[in-house]
Write a structure and sequence with these properties.
CATH class of the largest domain: Mainly Beta
Helix content: 25-40%
Number of helices: 10
Bound molecules: 2-acetamido-2-deoxy-beta-D-glucopyranose
Oligomer: single chain
Largest sheet: 7 strands, antiparallel
CATH topology of the largest domain: Jelly Rolls
Number of strands: 23
Number of domains: 3
Strand order of the largest sheet: 11-12-23-14-19-20-21
CATH architecture of the largest domain: Sandwich
CATH superfamily of the largest domain: SPRY domain
Shape: elongated
Strand content: 15-25%
Structural class: alpha+beta
Length: 538
Protein backbone atom coordinates (compact mmCIF):
# COMPACT_ATOMS: atom_id res chain seq x y z
CA UNK A 1 0.00 0.00 0.00
CA UNK A 2 2.68 2.37 1.02
CA UNK A 3 4.52 1.72 -2.21
CA UNK A 4 1.45 2.48 -4.38
CA UNK A 5 0.85 5.65 -2.47
CA UNK A 6 4.37 6.85 -2.76
CA UNK A 7 4.53 6.00 -6.45
CA UNK A 8 1.50 8.10 -7.22
CA UNK A 9 2.83 10.89 -5.09
CA UNK A 10 6.28 10.79 -6.60
CA UNK A 11 4.90 10.98 -10.11
CA UNK A 12 2.75 13.93 -9.28
CA UNK A 13 5.50 15.82 -7.57
CA UNK A 14 7.82 15.94 -10.56
CA UNK A 15 8.81 19.22 -12.11
CA UNK A 16 8.51 18.72 -15.87
CA UNK A 17 11.53 20.93 -16.42
CA UNK A 18 14.12 19.27 -14.18
CA UNK A 19 12.16 16.05 -13.82
CA UNK A 20 13.02 15.93 -10.14
CA UNK A 21 10.71 16.15 -7.21
CA UNK A 22 9.80 19.81 -6.82
CA UNK A 23 12.01 22.09 -4.84
CA UNK A 24 10.05 25.21 -3.87
CA UNK A 25 7.05 24.32 -6.09
CA UNK A 26 5.43 27.33 -7.80
CA UNK A 27 2.07 27.37 -9.63
CA UNK A 28 1.61 29.53 -12.70
CA UNK A 29 -1.73 30.95 -13.93
CA UNK A 30 -2.53 27.99 -16.21
CA UNK A 31 -2.41 25.74 -13.11
CA UNK A 32 0.77 23.86 -13.85
CA UNK A 33 3.53 23.57 -11.28
CA UNK A 34 7.28 23.82 -11.63
CA UNK A 35 10.23 24.31 -9.37
CA UNK A 36 10.49 28.01 -8.57
CA UNK A 37 14.04 28.12 -9.95
CA UNK A 38 13.25 26.05 -13.05
CA UNK A 39 10.43 28.23 -14.29
CA UNK A 40 12.32 31.40 -13.37
CA UNK A 41 15.30 30.26 -15.43
CA UNK A 42 13.05 29.15 -18.25
CA UNK A 43 11.40 32.55 -18.53
CA UNK A 44 14.71 34.37 -18.01
CA UNK A 45 16.11 32.67 -21.08
CA UNK A 46 13.01 33.04 -23.30
CA UNK A 47 12.22 36.66 -22.67
CA UNK A 48 9.99 38.33 -23.82
CA UNK A 49 7.71 35.29 -24.30
CA UNK A 50 6.18 33.88 -21.14
CA UNK A 51 4.54 30.51 -21.85
CA UNK A 52 3.85 27.38 -19.87
CA UNK A 53 6.42 24.79 -20.83
CA UNK A 54 3.74 22.12 -20.49
CA UNK A 55 0.59 23.50 -22.18
CA UNK A 56 2.01 26.41 -24.18
CA UNK A 57 -0.42 28.91 -22.77
CA UNK A 58 1.19 32.31 -23.12
CA UNK A 59 0.89 35.17 -20.71
CA UNK A 60 1.10 38.76 -21.78
CA UNK A 61 3.20 39.70 -18.79
CA UNK A 62 5.50 37.75 -16.58
CA UNK A 63 3.33 36.11 -13.91
CA UNK A 64 4.22 36.72 -10.34
CA UNK A 65 5.69 33.57 -8.77
CA UNK A 66 5.09 32.31 -5.28
CA UNK A 67 5.92 29.03 -3.63
CA UNK A 68 2.83 26.84 -3.33
CA UNK A 69 3.02 25.99 0.36
CA UNK A 70 0.49 23.17 0.26
CA UNK A 71 2.40 21.28 -2.36
CA UNK A 72 5.65 22.04 -0.52
CA UNK A 73 4.25 20.50 2.67
CA UNK A 74 2.95 17.47 0.85
CA UNK A 75 6.36 16.99 -0.64
CA UNK A 76 7.99 17.19 2.78
CA UNK A 77 5.67 14.45 4.01
CA UNK A 78 6.24 12.40 0.91
CA UNK A 79 9.99 12.68 1.29
CA UNK A 80 9.86 11.49 4.88
CA UNK A 81 7.82 8.40 4.08
CA UNK A 82 9.90 7.42 1.09
CA UNK A 83 13.11 7.99 3.06
CA UNK A 84 11.89 5.62 5.79
CA UNK A 85 10.91 3.12 3.19
CA UNK A 86 14.04 3.34 1.09
CA UNK A 87 16.44 3.09 4.02
CA UNK A 88 15.76 -0.66 4.05
CA UNK A 89 15.54 -1.33 0.36
CA UNK A 90 18.43 0.33 -1.37
CA UNK A 91 18.79 -1.75 -4.45
CA UNK A 92 22.14 -3.27 -5.05
CA UNK A 93 23.67 -1.70 -8.06
CA UNK A 94 25.52 -3.89 -10.48
CA UNK A 95 28.84 -2.93 -11.88
CA UNK A 96 28.50 -0.62 -14.88
CA UNK A 97 24.80 -0.12 -14.28
CA UNK A 98 23.46 3.42 -14.05
CA UNK A 99 20.45 4.04 -11.87
CA UNK A 100 17.59 6.38 -12.47
CA UNK A 101 18.18 9.74 -10.84
CA UNK A 102 14.46 10.27 -10.24
CA UNK A 103 13.26 7.06 -8.67
CA UNK A 104 12.99 7.49 -4.98
CA UNK A 105 13.31 4.43 -2.87
CA UNK A 106 14.20 1.42 -4.99
CA UNK A 107 15.90 2.92 -8.00
CA UNK A 108 15.43 1.35 -11.40
CA UNK A 109 18.08 0.96 -14.03
CA UNK A 110 18.37 4.04 -16.21
CA UNK A 111 17.62 3.69 -19.94
CA UNK A 112 18.99 7.05 -21.05
CA UNK A 113 20.87 10.00 -19.65
CA UNK A 114 19.92 13.55 -20.57
CA UNK A 115 22.75 15.98 -21.18
CA UNK A 116 20.54 19.03 -20.73
CA UNK A 117 19.04 17.90 -17.44
CA UNK A 118 22.26 16.17 -16.33
CA UNK A 119 20.12 13.30 -15.09
CA UNK A 120 19.54 9.66 -15.94
CA UNK A 121 16.06 8.20 -16.37
CA UNK A 122 14.43 4.83 -16.11
CA UNK A 123 11.79 3.87 -18.61
CA UNK A 124 8.99 5.52 -16.68
CA UNK A 125 10.79 8.76 -15.93
CA UNK A 126 12.03 9.02 -19.45
CA UNK A 127 8.47 9.31 -20.74
CA UNK A 128 8.15 13.13 -20.45
CA UNK A 129 11.22 13.41 -22.69
CA UNK A 130 9.39 11.44 -25.33
CA UNK A 131 6.20 13.38 -25.01
CA UNK A 132 6.82 17.00 -24.11
CA UNK A 133 8.07 19.03 -27.09
CA UNK A 134 10.64 21.12 -25.21
CA UNK A 135 12.04 18.04 -23.56
CA UNK A 136 12.01 16.16 -26.84
CA UNK A 137 14.73 18.50 -27.98
CA UNK A 138 17.02 17.38 -25.16
CA UNK A 139 19.97 15.34 -26.13
CA UNK A 140 19.64 11.83 -24.73
CA UNK A 141 22.51 9.43 -24.59
CA UNK A 142 23.31 5.92 -23.46
CA UNK A 143 23.16 6.06 -19.64
CA UNK A 144 26.39 7.13 -17.97
CA UNK A 145 27.37 7.56 -14.37
CA UNK A 146 29.36 10.74 -14.42
CA UNK A 147 27.19 13.10 -16.43
CA UNK A 148 29.13 16.15 -15.22
CA UNK A 149 32.08 15.02 -17.27
CA UNK A 150 29.87 15.31 -20.36
CA UNK A 151 29.45 19.02 -19.78
CA UNK A 152 31.75 21.81 -20.80
CA UNK A 153 33.84 23.07 -17.89
CA UNK A 154 33.61 26.64 -19.15
CA UNK A 155 30.02 26.91 -20.34
CA UNK A 156 28.17 24.12 -18.58
CA UNK A 157 26.73 22.99 -21.93
CA UNK A 158 26.75 19.41 -23.20
CA UNK A 159 29.93 18.48 -25.00
CA UNK A 160 28.30 17.61 -28.29
CA UNK A 161 31.07 18.42 -30.72
CA UNK A 162 34.64 17.40 -31.25
CA UNK A 163 37.43 19.62 -32.48
CA UNK A 164 39.56 17.42 -34.73
CA UNK A 165 42.33 19.99 -34.75
CA UNK A 166 42.83 20.18 -30.99
CA UNK A 167 41.44 16.68 -30.37
CA UNK A 168 39.10 17.94 -27.61
CA UNK A 169 35.39 17.83 -26.87
CA UNK A 170 33.62 21.18 -27.14
CA UNK A 171 30.15 22.53 -26.48
CA UNK A 172 28.10 24.72 -28.81
CA UNK A 173 29.42 27.88 -27.15
CA UNK A 174 32.98 26.74 -27.64
CA UNK A 175 32.07 25.97 -31.23
CA UNK A 176 30.83 29.52 -31.67
CA UNK A 177 34.05 30.89 -30.25
CA UNK A 178 36.28 28.51 -32.07
CA UNK A 179 38.74 29.48 -34.74
CA UNK A 180 37.29 28.89 -38.19
CA UNK A 181 40.28 26.97 -39.42
CA UNK A 182 39.58 24.22 -36.91
CA UNK A 183 37.68 21.18 -38.07
CA UNK A 184 34.63 20.68 -35.88
CA UNK A 185 32.52 17.56 -36.19
CA UNK A 186 29.78 15.96 -34.17
CA UNK A 187 30.76 13.41 -31.60
CA UNK A 188 29.22 10.71 -33.77
CA UNK A 189 31.35 11.74 -36.71
CA UNK A 190 34.44 11.89 -34.53
CA UNK A 191 33.63 8.40 -33.27
CA UNK A 192 33.47 7.26 -36.91
CA UNK A 193 36.91 8.71 -37.51
CA UNK A 194 38.24 7.06 -34.38
CA UNK A 195 36.66 3.82 -35.47
CA UNK A 196 38.40 4.07 -38.82
CA UNK A 197 41.65 4.76 -37.04
CA UNK A 198 40.98 1.86 -34.73
CA UNK A 199 40.34 -0.43 -37.67
CA UNK A 200 43.57 0.54 -39.34
CA UNK A 201 45.33 0.15 -36.04
CA UNK A 202 43.74 -3.24 -35.62
CA UNK A 203 45.02 -4.16 -39.04
CA UNK A 204 48.48 -2.97 -38.07
CA UNK A 205 48.31 -4.86 -34.78
CA UNK A 206 47.17 -7.97 -36.58
CA UNK A 207 50.10 -7.63 -38.93
CA UNK A 208 52.43 -7.24 -35.97
CA UNK A 209 50.96 -10.32 -34.33
CA UNK A 210 51.32 -12.23 -37.58
CA UNK A 211 54.94 -11.14 -37.87
CA UNK A 212 55.60 -12.30 -34.34
CA UNK A 213 53.98 -15.63 -35.03
CA UNK A 214 56.18 -15.96 -38.09
CA UNK A 215 59.17 -15.09 -35.90
CA UNK A 216 58.22 -17.85 -33.47
CA UNK A 217 58.07 -20.30 -36.36
CA UNK A 218 61.41 -19.05 -37.59
CA UNK A 219 62.96 -19.45 -34.16
CA UNK A 220 61.44 -22.88 -33.76
CA UNK A 221 62.80 -23.94 -37.13
CA UNK A 222 66.18 -22.57 -36.23
CA UNK A 223 66.03 -24.34 -32.88
CA UNK A 224 65.13 -27.58 -34.64
CA UNK A 225 68.06 -27.12 -37.02
CA UNK A 226 70.32 -26.38 -34.08
CA UNK A 227 69.10 -29.51 -32.28
CA UNK A 228 69.71 -31.63 -35.35
CA UNK A 229 73.13 -30.13 -35.73
CA UNK A 230 73.98 -30.68 -32.08
CA UNK A 231 72.78 -34.27 -32.33
CA UNK A 232 74.83 -34.81 -35.43
CA UNK A 233 77.88 -33.19 -33.91
CA UNK A 234 77.48 -35.40 -30.88
CA UNK A 235 77.21 -38.56 -32.97
CA UNK A 236 80.09 -37.51 -35.19
CA UNK A 237 82.39 -36.64 -32.34
CA UNK A 238 81.53 -39.82 -30.45
CA UNK A 239 82.17 -41.84 -33.59
CA UNK A 240 85.35 -39.97 -34.37
CA UNK A 241 86.70 -40.27 -30.86
CA UNK A 242 85.75 -43.94 -30.57
CA UNK A 243 87.41 -44.61 -33.91
CA UNK A 244 90.45 -42.64 -32.85
CA UNK A 245 90.68 -44.49 -29.55
CA UNK A 246 90.28 -47.83 -31.36
CA UNK A 247 92.89 -46.87 -33.87
CA UNK A 248 95.29 -45.77 -31.18
CA UNK A 249 94.74 -48.97 -29.20
CA UNK A 250 95.22 -51.11 -32.31
CA UNK A 251 98.27 -49.16 -33.34
CA UNK A 252 99.65 -49.48 -29.87
CA UNK A 253 99.21 -53.26 -30.01
CA UNK A 254 100.90 -53.38 -33.42
CA UNK A 255 103.71 -51.16 -32.30
CA UNK A 256 104.21 -53.31 -29.21
CA UNK A 257 104.43 -56.38 -31.38
CA UNK A 258 106.91 -54.80 -33.76
CA UNK A 259 109.10 -53.55 -30.99
CA UNK A 260 108.94 -56.85 -29.13
CA UNK A 261 109.75 -58.88 -32.25
CA UNK A 262 112.68 -56.70 -33.10
CA UNK A 263 113.92 -56.75 -29.56
CA UNK A 264 113.47 -60.55 -29.48
CA UNK A 265 115.75 -60.92 -32.47
CA UNK A 266 118.36 -58.75 -30.85
CA UNK A 267 118.07 -60.73 -27.63
CA UNK A 268 118.61 -63.96 -29.58
CA UNK A 269 121.53 -62.57 -31.46
CA UNK A 270 123.15 -61.33 -28.26
CA UNK A 271 122.51 -64.67 -26.64
CA UNK A 272 124.17 -66.44 -29.60
CA UNK A 273 127.21 -64.21 -29.42
CA UNK A 274 127.57 -64.71 -25.71
CA UNK A 275 127.22 -68.50 -25.98
CA UNK A 276 129.80 -68.62 -28.74
CA UNK A 277 132.17 -66.47 -26.76
CA UNK A 278 131.63 -68.59 -23.64
CA UNK A 279 132.45 -71.69 -25.70
CA UNK A 280 135.65 -70.17 -27.00
CA UNK A 281 136.61 -69.18 -23.47
CA UNK A 282 136.14 -72.79 -22.40
CA UNK A 283 138.26 -74.00 -25.33
CA UNK A 284 140.95 -71.49 -24.58
CA UNK A 285 140.96 -72.40 -20.90
CA UNK A 286 141.11 -76.12 -21.72
CA UNK A 287 144.23 -75.63 -23.69
CA UNK A 288 146.07 -73.85 -20.95
CA UNK A 289 145.26 -76.46 -18.33
CA UNK A 290 147.33 -78.95 -20.27
CA UNK A 291 150.35 -76.80 -19.65
CA UNK A 292 151.97 -76.55 -16.32
CA UNK A 293 152.95 -73.23 -15.09
CA UNK A 294 156.58 -73.85 -14.48
CA UNK A 295 159.10 -76.19 -16.16
CA UNK A 296 159.46 -78.00 -12.80
CA UNK A 297 161.86 -80.85 -12.68
CA UNK A 298 161.73 -81.90 -16.29
CA UNK A 299 162.44 -78.99 -18.65
CA UNK A 300 162.59 -81.45 -21.57
CA UNK A 301 158.96 -82.58 -21.13
CA UNK A 302 157.80 -79.01 -20.55
CA UNK A 303 159.12 -77.82 -23.86
CA UNK A 304 157.77 -80.89 -25.70
CA UNK A 305 154.28 -80.35 -24.23
CA UNK A 306 154.25 -76.68 -25.02
CA UNK A 307 155.31 -77.31 -28.56
CA UNK A 308 152.62 -79.93 -29.19
CA UNK A 309 149.80 -77.78 -27.72
CA UNK A 310 150.89 -74.19 -28.04
CA UNK A 311 151.87 -73.95 -31.62
CA UNK A 312 148.44 -75.00 -32.82
CA UNK A 313 146.10 -72.13 -31.84
CA UNK A 314 142.50 -73.23 -31.21
CA UNK A 315 140.09 -72.29 -34.00
CA UNK A 316 138.49 -69.11 -32.64
CA UNK A 317 136.61 -66.30 -34.27
CA UNK A 318 138.05 -62.88 -35.00
CA UNK A 319 135.51 -60.77 -32.93
CA UNK A 320 136.94 -57.35 -33.78
CA UNK A 321 134.19 -56.41 -36.15
CA UNK A 322 131.37 -58.15 -34.38
CA UNK A 323 128.90 -55.88 -32.54
CA UNK A 324 125.32 -56.25 -31.40
CA UNK A 325 123.52 -54.05 -33.89
CA UNK A 326 120.25 -52.25 -32.94
CA UNK A 327 118.63 -48.99 -33.92
CA UNK A 328 116.77 -46.89 -31.40
CA UNK A 329 112.98 -46.63 -31.79
CA UNK A 330 111.83 -43.04 -32.26
CA UNK A 331 110.31 -41.64 -29.03
CA UNK A 332 107.59 -39.49 -30.56
CA UNK A 333 105.14 -39.58 -27.72
CA UNK A 334 105.29 -35.86 -26.95
CA UNK A 335 104.47 -34.87 -30.50
CA UNK A 336 101.71 -37.40 -30.75
CA UNK A 337 100.22 -36.20 -27.52
CA UNK A 338 100.33 -32.55 -28.59
CA UNK A 339 98.77 -33.37 -31.94
CA UNK A 340 95.99 -35.48 -30.50
CA UNK A 341 95.23 -32.94 -27.80
CA UNK A 342 95.08 -30.15 -30.32
CA UNK A 343 92.72 -32.07 -32.54
CA UNK A 344 90.54 -33.16 -29.65
CA UNK A 345 90.33 -29.71 -28.11
CA UNK A 346 89.38 -28.38 -31.51
CA UNK A 347 86.45 -30.75 -31.35
CA UNK A 348 85.75 -29.84 -27.77
CA UNK A 349 85.90 -26.05 -27.97
CA UNK A 350 83.98 -24.95 -31.02
CA UNK A 351 83.47 -21.65 -29.18
CA UNK A 352 87.09 -20.75 -29.67
CA UNK A 353 86.59 -20.75 -33.40
CA UNK A 354 83.65 -18.42 -32.92
CA UNK A 355 85.81 -16.14 -30.82
CA UNK A 356 88.45 -16.02 -33.49
CA UNK A 357 85.80 -14.64 -35.84
CA UNK A 358 85.96 -11.42 -33.85
CA UNK A 359 89.59 -10.77 -34.77
CA UNK A 360 90.53 -7.09 -34.84
CA UNK A 361 93.67 -5.41 -36.10
CA UNK A 362 95.86 -4.26 -33.23
CA UNK A 363 99.00 -2.14 -33.45
CA UNK A 364 101.17 -0.68 -30.71
CA UNK A 365 100.91 2.95 -29.65
CA UNK A 366 104.40 4.54 -29.48
CA UNK A 367 103.06 7.41 -27.34
CA UNK A 368 102.38 4.99 -24.51
CA UNK A 369 105.59 2.96 -24.81
CA UNK A 370 108.06 2.89 -21.93
CA UNK A 371 111.34 4.52 -23.12
CA UNK A 372 113.13 1.19 -22.63
CA UNK A 373 111.01 -0.56 -25.21
CA UNK A 374 111.73 -0.87 -28.89
CA UNK A 375 108.82 -1.12 -31.31
CA UNK A 376 109.19 -2.53 -34.79
CA UNK A 377 108.51 -0.27 -37.75
CA UNK A 378 105.18 -1.95 -38.40
CA UNK A 379 104.25 -1.49 -34.71
CA UNK A 380 103.53 -5.17 -34.36
CA UNK A 381 106.56 -6.21 -32.28
CA UNK A 382 107.94 -4.97 -28.99
CA UNK A 383 111.03 -5.89 -27.04
CA UNK A 384 113.24 -4.46 -24.31
CA UNK A 385 116.39 -2.50 -25.20
CA UNK A 386 118.80 -0.15 -23.50
CA UNK A 387 117.40 3.33 -23.15
CA UNK A 388 119.10 5.52 -25.71
CA UNK A 389 116.98 8.60 -25.86
CA UNK A 390 114.38 10.44 -23.91
CA UNK A 391 111.08 10.44 -25.71
CA UNK A 392 108.72 13.39 -25.37
CA UNK A 393 106.80 13.52 -22.11
CA UNK A 394 103.34 12.11 -22.44
CA UNK A 395 100.89 11.42 -19.64
CA UNK A 396 99.91 8.28 -21.52
CA UNK A 397 103.46 6.90 -21.36
CA UNK A 398 104.48 4.07 -19.02
CA UNK A 399 107.51 5.55 -17.27
CA UNK A 400 108.39 2.89 -14.77
CA UNK A 401 107.04 -0.39 -16.09
CA UNK A 402 108.12 -1.89 -19.40
CA UNK A 403 104.71 -1.65 -21.00
CA UNK A 404 102.93 -0.33 -24.05
CA UNK A 405 99.27 -0.15 -25.06
CA UNK A 406 97.54 -0.93 -28.31
CA UNK A 407 96.67 2.09 -30.37
CA UNK A 408 93.15 0.97 -31.17
CA UNK A 409 90.67 0.88 -28.37
CA UNK A 410 88.58 -2.28 -28.31
CA UNK A 411 85.43 -0.67 -29.55
CA UNK A 412 83.41 -3.63 -30.79
CA UNK A 413 81.26 -5.54 -28.38
CA UNK A 414 83.50 -8.56 -28.98
CA UNK A 415 87.19 -8.39 -29.90
CA UNK A 416 89.93 -10.95 -30.38
CA UNK A 417 93.63 -10.74 -31.13
CA UNK A 418 96.68 -13.00 -30.87
CA UNK A 419 100.15 -12.39 -29.52
CA UNK A 420 103.20 -14.61 -29.97
CA UNK A 421 105.11 -15.22 -26.72
CA UNK A 422 107.46 -17.88 -28.12
CA UNK A 423 110.96 -18.15 -26.57
CA UNK A 424 110.16 -15.69 -23.81
CA UNK A 425 110.61 -16.21 -20.08
CA UNK A 426 108.68 -13.18 -18.98
CA UNK A 427 105.69 -11.25 -20.32
CA UNK A 428 102.35 -9.76 -19.37
CA UNK A 429 99.30 -9.49 -21.63
CA UNK A 430 95.71 -8.42 -21.37
CA UNK A 431 93.50 -5.35 -21.48
CA UNK A 432 93.34 -2.22 -19.36
CA UNK A 433 90.79 0.54 -18.93
CA UNK A 434 91.27 4.04 -20.20
CA UNK A 435 92.04 5.76 -16.94
CA UNK A 436 94.43 3.29 -15.33
CA UNK A 437 97.04 4.59 -12.99
CA UNK A 438 100.30 3.49 -14.60
CA UNK A 439 101.92 2.92 -11.21
CA UNK A 440 99.27 0.76 -9.59
CA UNK A 441 99.18 -2.95 -9.09
CA UNK A 442 97.81 -4.59 -12.24
CA UNK A 443 94.60 -6.06 -10.80
CA UNK A 444 91.00 -5.76 -12.02
CA UNK A 445 90.13 -3.29 -9.25
CA UNK A 446 92.66 -0.94 -10.80
CA UNK A 447 91.43 -1.48 -14.33
CA UNK A 448 93.88 -4.24 -15.39
CA UNK A 449 92.75 -7.66 -16.62
CA UNK A 450 96.00 -9.52 -17.39
CA UNK A 451 97.94 -12.79 -17.20
CA UNK A 452 101.72 -13.02 -16.95
CA UNK A 453 104.70 -15.34 -17.08
CA UNK A 454 107.71 -14.86 -14.78
CA UNK A 455 111.04 -16.70 -14.52
CA UNK A 456 110.06 -18.90 -17.43
CA UNK A 457 107.68 -21.01 -15.34
CA UNK A 458 105.57 -18.95 -12.97
CA UNK A 459 102.34 -18.55 -14.88
CA UNK A 460 99.73 -16.37 -13.17
CA UNK A 461 96.40 -14.65 -13.74
CA UNK A 462 96.53 -11.23 -12.10
CA UNK A 463 93.19 -11.56 -10.39
CA UNK A 464 92.72 -10.57 -6.79
CA UNK A 465 93.91 -12.89 -5.29
CA UNK A 466 96.29 -14.09 -8.01
CA UNK A 467 95.58 -17.46 -9.65
CA UNK A 468 98.37 -19.87 -10.53
CA UNK A 469 97.96 -21.36 -13.99
CA UNK A 470 99.36 -24.63 -15.36
CA UNK A 471 101.96 -23.90 -18.02
CA UNK A 472 102.21 -26.03 -21.16
CA UNK A 473 105.65 -26.34 -22.62
CA UNK A 474 104.19 -25.85 -26.05
CA UNK A 475 102.63 -22.45 -25.29
CA UNK A 476 103.65 -20.13 -28.10
CA UNK A 477 100.73 -17.89 -28.86
CA UNK A 478 98.15 -16.24 -26.63
CA UNK A 479 94.67 -15.38 -27.89
CA UNK A 480 92.97 -12.52 -26.05
CA UNK A 481 89.19 -12.30 -26.26
CA UNK A 482 87.10 -9.45 -24.83
CA UNK A 483 83.32 -9.35 -24.57
CA UNK A 484 82.56 -5.84 -23.43
CA UNK A 485 78.87 -6.37 -22.81
CA UNK A 486 79.24 -9.65 -20.95
CA UNK A 487 82.20 -8.31 -18.99
CA UNK A 488 84.53 -11.10 -20.08
CA UNK A 489 88.27 -11.19 -20.80
CA UNK A 490 89.51 -14.66 -21.82
CA UNK A 491 92.96 -15.95 -22.68
CA UNK A 492 93.63 -18.91 -24.97
CA UNK A 493 96.54 -21.14 -25.85
CA UNK A 494 96.05 -20.70 -29.58
CA UNK A 495 97.88 -23.84 -30.74
CA UNK A 496 96.34 -26.13 -28.18
CA UNK A 497 93.04 -24.26 -28.64
CA UNK A 498 92.36 -24.33 -24.93
CA UNK A 499 91.20 -21.68 -22.55
CA UNK A 500 93.90 -20.56 -20.15
CA UNK A 501 91.92 -18.21 -17.95
CA UNK A 502 88.82 -16.00 -18.02
CA UNK A 503 87.91 -12.89 -16.08
CA UNK A 504 84.13 -12.85 -15.98
CA UNK A 505 81.49 -10.52 -14.57
CA UNK A 506 83.79 -7.54 -15.10
CA UNK A 507 82.26 -4.13 -14.85
CA UNK A 508 83.53 -2.26 -17.88
CA UNK A 509 82.44 1.32 -17.95
CA UNK A 510 85.34 2.79 -19.87
CA UNK A 511 87.17 2.29 -23.13
CA UNK A 512 89.48 -0.73 -23.07
CA UNK A 513 92.95 -0.97 -24.65
CA UNK A 514 95.19 -3.98 -25.32
CA UNK A 515 98.13 -4.12 -22.91
CA UNK A 516 101.61 -5.51 -23.71
CA UNK A 517 104.48 -6.05 -21.27
CA UNK A 518 107.44 -7.82 -22.93
CA UNK A 519 109.50 -7.78 -19.71
CA UNK A 520 113.24 -7.03 -19.42
CA UNK A 521 115.89 -8.73 -21.59
CA UNK A 522 117.12 -10.76 -18.61
CA UNK A 523 120.64 -11.22 -19.99
CA UNK A 524 119.31 -12.31 -23.36
CA UNK A 525 117.04 -15.06 -22.03
CA UNK A 526 113.98 -12.91 -22.66
CA UNK A 527 115.12 -10.98 -25.71
CA UNK A 528 112.49 -12.46 -28.05
CA UNK A 529 109.84 -9.88 -28.93
CA UNK A 530 106.13 -10.01 -28.23
CA UNK A 531 104.55 -10.15 -31.68
CA UNK A 532 100.98 -9.31 -32.60
CA UNK A 533 100.23 -11.93 -35.22
CA UNK A 534 97.43 -12.03 -37.70
CA UNK A 535 94.68 -14.43 -36.81
CA UNK A 536 94.45 -17.51 -39.02
CA UNK A 537 90.99 -18.93 -39.03
CA UNK A 538 91.19 -22.70 -38.74
C1 LIG B 1 3.76 24.87 -28.28
O1 LIG B 1 4.31 25.92 -29.06
C2 LIG B 1 5.38 25.56 -29.89
C3 LIG B 1 5.89 26.80 -30.57
O2 LIG B 1 6.07 27.78 -29.64
C4 LIG B 1 4.89 24.50 -30.88
O3 LIG B 1 5.98 24.08 -31.68
C5 LIG B 1 4.28 23.36 -30.16
O4 LIG B 1 3.73 22.42 -31.08
C6 LIG B 1 3.18 23.78 -29.18
N1 LIG B 1 2.77 22.65 -28.39
C7 LIG B 1 1.48 22.43 -28.03
C8 LIG B 1 1.21 21.20 -27.22
O5 LIG B 1 0.60 23.18 -28.39
C1 LIG C 1 140.90 -59.54 -37.13
O1 LIG C 1 140.28 -58.72 -38.12
C2 LIG C 1 140.80 -57.38 -38.19
C3 LIG C 1 139.99 -56.59 -39.19
O2 LIG C 1 139.60 -57.33 -40.27
C4 LIG C 1 142.26 -57.41 -38.51
O3 LIG C 1 142.73 -56.10 -38.56
C5 LIG C 1 143.02 -58.25 -37.51
O4 LIG C 1 144.34 -58.39 -37.85
C6 LIG C 1 142.39 -59.64 -37.35
N1 LIG C 1 143.03 -60.33 -36.29
C7 LIG C 1 143.47 -61.55 -36.43
C8 LIG C 1 144.08 -62.11 -35.24
O5 LIG C 1 143.36 -62.11 -37.50
C1 LIG D 1 89.39 2.22 -14.50
O1 LIG D 1 90.57 2.53 -13.86
C2 LIG D 1 90.46 3.54 -12.88
C3 LIG D 1 91.81 3.80 -12.38
O2 LIG D 1 92.43 2.65 -11.92
C4 LIG D 1 89.51 3.12 -11.77
O3 LIG D 1 89.36 4.16 -10.87
C5 LIG D 1 88.19 2.80 -12.40
O4 LIG D 1 87.30 2.32 -11.41
C6 LIG D 1 88.38 1.78 -13.47
N1 LIG D 1 87.13 1.52 -14.10
C7 LIG D 1 86.63 0.33 -14.14
C8 LIG D 1 85.35 0.22 -14.83
O5 LIG D 1 87.16 -0.64 -13.65
C1 LIG E 1 79.31 -2.85 -11.30
O1 LIG E 1 78.97 -1.50 -11.28
C2 LIG E 1 77.72 -1.25 -10.72
C3 LIG E 1 77.43 0.23 -10.87
O2 LIG E 1 78.59 0.99 -10.94
C4 LIG E 1 77.72 -1.71 -9.27
O3 LIG E 1 76.45 -1.51 -8.72
C5 LIG E 1 78.07 -3.18 -9.22
O4 LIG E 1 78.16 -3.61 -7.88
C6 LIG E 1 79.38 -3.44 -9.91
N1 LIG E 1 79.65 -4.85 -9.95
C7 LIG E 1 80.86 -5.37 -9.70
C8 LIG E 1 80.97 -6.84 -9.83
O5 LIG E 1 81.82 -4.68 -9.42
Amino acid sequence: MASAESQIAEDDFLCSICLSVFTKPASIPCGHNFCFDCITKCWDSKNPEFACPLCNETFSSRPMLRVNTIIAELIEKFKKTTLEKSSGTVEEKQAGEVLCSICSGAKLTALRSCLECVLSYCEKHLEPHQRIPTLKKHKLIHPVEDLESRLCDKHGKPLEMFCMTDQIFICEVCNGNCCRSHTIVTIEEAAQVVQTQFRSQMKHTEQMIEKRQQKIKEIENSLEASRNNAGMALTCSVNAMTAAVDYIKRSQAELTEIIETKQGKIENEAKGFIEELDLEIVQLKEKTTHLEESPGNDPFMYITNFRSLGIIQPQVKNWTLVTLKWTPFPAQGARLRATVMREVSMLCDPDFKEKQQHAVDVTLDPDTANPNLRLSADRKEVTHRKRNMNPPNDPKRFDLVFSVLGKERLCSIRCYYEVQVKDKTQWMLGVVNHSINRMEEPIPENGYWTICLRKGSEFTANANPAVNLPLRETLQKIGVFVDYKEGEVSFYDVDARVNIFSFTGCNFTEKLFPFFGPGPQDGGKNSAPLIITSVKHP
